Amino acid sequence: MTTKRSKANSAAATAVSAVAVSGKGSISKSSVSKARVAKASASEHSKARDSKDRVAKSSLLGGRKRKSAEGPYKLLAIDLDGTFLDHEGEAHEEDILAIKKLKARGIMVTILTGRLYSGTKESAEILGIDGPVGCADGSHIVRVAGQKTLFHRGIRGRAANKLRESLERNDLVAFLFAEDAIVHDERGADYLPFVRTWSTDLRYAHRITEHALWDSKDGMTAVVALGHETSVGRTVADIQRDTTESMQVAMFPFRRDAEHWGMVARASGGTKATALEWIAKHYGVSVDETVCVGDWMNDLPMLGAAGRSFAMGQAPDEVKKAATDVLERTITTGGGIAEAIARAFGR
Q: Taking the C-alpha atoms of 303, 307, 311 and 316 in order, what is their torsion angle to the nearest 10 degrees?
């Protein structure tokens, strides 16, 4: 059974990664062929099974060793797209039930996602989460109960001005992310299905580069821009040259056509790891007492920070190497979070 979500392109929310990587997770097969096993003696049968078990076990281990804390773990953090939500924006009932049962045991659960809060709220409410969740890859932390901002790291001041100048100079289509809303102008209208995954709160502005957000005290949670690869590359180069200490940026291919690319800029310092640390401290637990589950490049920081971390079965090799464990389940099969809960917290 699955739970319905938005049908928008769920890959958009994790487009913060610089390049698209394809990785298929699977359990490694024993090097002993079936023919050889068939001819083996009883002793050889036993050795073959032992070898196969060792290979299968090793394939479930990530590239990072667990930290000193071996449990009991006290907090679970999950990614949304590719981990909890599939490519159709749906969650598997097995994962929902496992999370609810874990919460009933007194374990705290949070969400760490690239989405803005409005794109996160529905999942949080379905899971019964009313505490803090980390949005925009750690740039915005919101308490679900009351929808109150607890922490925000925004692009502002000199960095905002430099970014605006570069966007105008390179004629890019831009979207301003303001905590929970996305501001766009007429040029961005055709791309709304793409950005809608981040947030469903879309607001129109006459001219995006003249919006008051550029001069706001709190700044912008993120800025996404689309255009020809060369033009996007120029803006990325401008940011890396002029504002590297105050802003981070990633460039990604845009699936609409081969010529168009995108970029996402955020204030420096915010990651899913910093959000995990903030939320763990909020609950009075250490990061070593946390467990996280993710599948993509923007999950790398939290996978490396948590006491125990699980990479989804379909995750790229780089993501699997950053985790302590690799799941058999994929987003296609569903049940990845349920598997992680069983292995880290017991059934």
A: 40
